[in-house]
């Protein structure tokens, strides 16, 4: 894929600078020490879910594949590294030829995860793998945090559609990724045109309070909008007096008015009043969209209200209290020498004070109970027990540097819905709790 | 400035799709209704600071100027809008010629702000101004949230330098903006190479646990790093046993070892022990860098510890609990007709249930007490009182579509330090409280 295919509004000529400097200085040190070529296994995992959350959602995998494919050090980047004396000439020369040539396995995008789940596994020389740490974590930590919030909101919304409207509350490009992650988590559409362009997500939007205020009266504004967008449009009815606005809206658009939007006030109360008023005016098919500071709890509290759709902004793009996942990228095994036949040695940080890891290259499988419901996330090294062989979670994503697992976003979205449906029902309770299934570790014979 | 000058790793051919769809449908409605040309004033402000915060920090202004200059609808974008039938042909034709030709005033970047501060004011036709809502808010809301956290952390750190290390915890491009905002807020450097490239922020970094684990022993790893980066490097000493690592580090690098980094454990305790050990080994000039899950409170709690520098990641890039500012972009005045001589009419949303605004084009000034310390943020419409005339906060940023206020980031950083120093001392207390100065509204005669 050419970098141009990454799409507007941003063309990324290279992802190679989405990198912490220490990755390059480690490379330099390893090249000099003769250890850069040791075969290595890095894994992405999290030690814990955000406090109170029952499951995590893997999102961003597709973006990681794009980033790895476009991780190249062109002349502009090399010039910068040389001029700033970040690494020496030998390292610059090595970087100039960089192409990831290893293998990446991972949980398929949309899958759920738990503490310790080996969400992604990157294998190759130490040199080629160590450089990918930051860009992989940036993407997975951001996108998974948003998708997890989206998933909870979509559980709470049930069959009612959710619109992603948070672009204005986050970095302009994080917003595009957030709209994508929200779609994976179950949202139906986005207000963000860049996300529509880049990922073909359905886009929606009609008008803001400014449109009403621009005109000499609310009636003029509604007339202008209906003239322009037709009677099936959504009119915003809370600029002045809601009841008067609803009356005017139905007068202007007729009882076939598509929808009204309520963006402030006591949504539960206002939605009931507006529904009653619309029905009395004969606009029984007119829908009600609410959009004011919603999160999963507010959505759930409106379950019994006559609301047809939700627009969610701030709380979606900020992960509803958890704007990042805490995934890390750790070396878990490496060869004892650069000999290609050298066996892998499991490695792990061992100091006291937390942040310890489990060494060794891991597999993972989800064990089901007699009813087919997930009962444990089993993570192990060595041989996979026969009874779990067909429940394994990691799939190949990149083979010998070639991306082999691109897939449409709708497939990912459906996978997430299915994965969530396979968890115990309490997974979708919004109340705080432990991970809905435990993680069990199995240490196999071969150790790596 | 050409779009190419926006710099790697991302070339933004256009910012025009960082836009919520409703801005385009409002444009279409206004074009059809004949109201699109009404002179309009939009203002960016926030109704409240994040809960407990004493002041806000304006950041992102420079990025807004880039975004406005590059807000163009090229053929690829127009094709998308046409194909998806987002707007009609007349609107597409209007968009094809879009260049912002109005004026933008704002608080200079780095300045502090309070509830109601008119942080930015955009004036021009309704059509040209309404389109900029999302991209302006995305940038200011994200960058200001990060800068506010950075400012609190730099207050807490005093003279000790702060390193931004959060790229892996946020979207890969949000990370670049976050490093920039952190620098504005008082950080000294970043680990993010893209931020070094794009904004010329000093970059730092040496090694991670993976480098130690790659080698056959900690000693081998330290030797490899010192061979590569010299004895002035920073060695990471908490992979296995800290005391043993410190001893090995000084043996390998000699007492002129630059620094050691501690990334886990009880930092207060470990820092004291490591300092004592270093001193006993004669490495009295070796500095101690700590980097484990720090926020402004943890930094403050280490004030008496023998720590020389702090590296901050997650809590910086997530705004230390407040990952977004709540700035809005509201129409506050517009002409009664498209006649260029038509006077401006103040406008504001008026429904009950919160989210009301103050209409009219505003000025702002910071009133000082007899000691020269800020005592009130005065926001008004109409004439500026003579005694506040030279304390006004808004400066011209764009004039007739031309950006006139680009400035180096160091100027912005110094401005923030000066602005914060001009606040009452309690501004820098970390405890929760009200905004450190009140906002006073003055309604002048002319009303707009």
Describe the structure.
With 448 residues, the first copy, chain A, is of the alpha/beta class. Chain A has two domains: 3-131 and 326-443, nicotinate phosphoribosyltransferase; 155-321, Aldolase class I (TIM Barrel). Chain A has 15 helices and 18 strands. A seven-stranded antiparallel β-sheet of chain A has the order 13-12-1-5-3-16-17. The first copy, chain A, starts with 20 loop residues before the first helix and ends in a 5-residue tail after the last strand. The interface between A and B is large, with 116 and 116 residues. Chains A, B: It catalyses: 5-phospho-alpha-D-ribose 1-diphosphate + nicotinate + ATP + H2O = nicotinate beta-D-ribonucleotide + ADP + phosphate + diphosphate. Chains A, B: GO terms for molecular function: glycosyltransferase activity; nicotinate phosphoribosyltransferase activity. Chains A, B: Keywords: Glycosyltransferase, Ligase, Phosphoprotein, Pyridine nucleotide biosynthesis, Transferase.
Instruction: Based on the coordinates given, report the CATH architecture of the largest domain in chain A.
Output: Alpha-Beta Barrel
Strand ordering within the main sheet of chain A: 13-12-1-5-3-16-17
CATH superfamily of the largest domain in chain A: nicotinate phosphoribosyltransferase
The structure class of chain A reads alpha/beta
Q: Biggest protein-protein interface?
A: A-B, 116 and 116 residues
Low-confidence stretches of chain A: 1-9
Number of discrete helical segments of chain A: 15
Whole-number average pLDDT of chain A? 94
The number of domains of chain A is 2
Note the overall shape of chain A: elongated
Number of strands of chain A: 18
What share of residues of chain A is helical? 25-40%
CATH fold descriptor of the largest domain in chain A: nicotinate phosphoribosyltransferase
Largest β-sheet summary of chain A? 7 strands, antiparallel
InterPro entries (chains A, B): Aldolase_TIM (IPR013785), NAPRTase_N (IPR040727), Nic_PRibTrfase-Fam (IPR007229), Nic_PRibTrfase_pncB (IPR006405), Nicotinate_pribotase-like_C (IPR036068)
Keywords (chains A, B): Glycosyltransferase, Ligase, Phosphoprotein, Pyridine nucleotide biosynthesis, Transferase
Catalytic activity (chains A, B): 5-phospho-alpha-D-ribose 1-diphosphate + nicotinate + ATP + H2O = nicotinate beta-D-ribonucleotide + ADP + phosphate + diphosphate
Organism (chains A, B): Streptomyces fimbriatus
């Amino acid at each position: 894929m050419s970098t141009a295919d990454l799409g507007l509004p941003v063309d990324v000529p290279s992802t190679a600078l989405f990198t912490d400097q220490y990755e390059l200085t480690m490379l330099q040190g390893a090249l000099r020490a003769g250890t850069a070529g040791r075969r290595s296994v890095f894994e992405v995992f999290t030690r814990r879910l955000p406090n109170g959350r029952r499951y995590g959602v893997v999102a961003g995998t597709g973006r990681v594949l794009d980033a790895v494919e476009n991780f190249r050090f062109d002349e502009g980047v090399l010039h910068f590294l040389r001029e700033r004396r970040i690494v020496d000439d030998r390292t610059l020369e090595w970087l100039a030829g960089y192409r990831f040539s290893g293998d990446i396995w991972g949980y398929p995008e949309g899958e759920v995860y738990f503490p310790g789940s080996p969400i992604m596994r990157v294998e190759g020389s130490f040199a080629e793998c160590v450089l990918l740490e930051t860009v992989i974590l940036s993407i997975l930590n951001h996108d998974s945090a948003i998708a997890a919030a989206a998933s909870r909101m979509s559980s709470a919304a049930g069959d009612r559609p959710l619109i992603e409207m948070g672009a204005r509350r986050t970095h302009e490009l994080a917003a595009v990724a957030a709209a994508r992650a929200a779609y994976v988590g179950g949202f139906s559409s986005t207000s963000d045109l860049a996300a529509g362009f880049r990922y073909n997500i359905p886009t929606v939007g009609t008008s803001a309070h400014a449109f009403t205020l621009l005109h000499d009266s609310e009636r003029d504004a509604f007339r202008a909008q209906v003239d322009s967008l037709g009677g099936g449009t959504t009119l915003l009815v809370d600029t002045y007096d809601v009841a008067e606005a609803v009356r005017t809206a139905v007068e202007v658009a007729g009882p076939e008015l598509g929808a009204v939007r309520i963006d402030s006030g006591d949504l539960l109360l206002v939605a009931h009043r507006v529904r009653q008023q619309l029905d009395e005016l004969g606009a029984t098919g007119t829908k009600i969209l609410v959009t004011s500071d919603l999160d999963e709890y507010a959505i759930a509290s409106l379950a019994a209200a006559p609301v047809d759709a939700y627009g969610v902004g701030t709380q979606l793009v900020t992960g509803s209290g958890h704007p990042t996942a805490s995934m890390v990228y750790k070396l878990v095994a490496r060869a004892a020498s650069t000999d290609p036949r050298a066996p892998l040695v499991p490695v792990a940080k061992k100091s006291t004070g937390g942040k310890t890891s489990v060494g060794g290259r891991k597999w993972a499988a989800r064990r089901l109970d007699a009813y087919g419901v997930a009962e444990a996330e089993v993570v192990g090294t060595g041989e996979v027990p026969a009874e779990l062989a067909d429940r394994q979670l990691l799939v190949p994503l990149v083979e010998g540097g070639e991306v082999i697992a691109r897939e449409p976003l709708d497939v990912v979205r459906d996978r997430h819905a299915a994965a969530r449906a396979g968890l115990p029902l309490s997974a979708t309770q919004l109340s705080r709790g432990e991970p809905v299934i435990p993680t069990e570790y199995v240490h196999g014979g071969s150790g790596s």
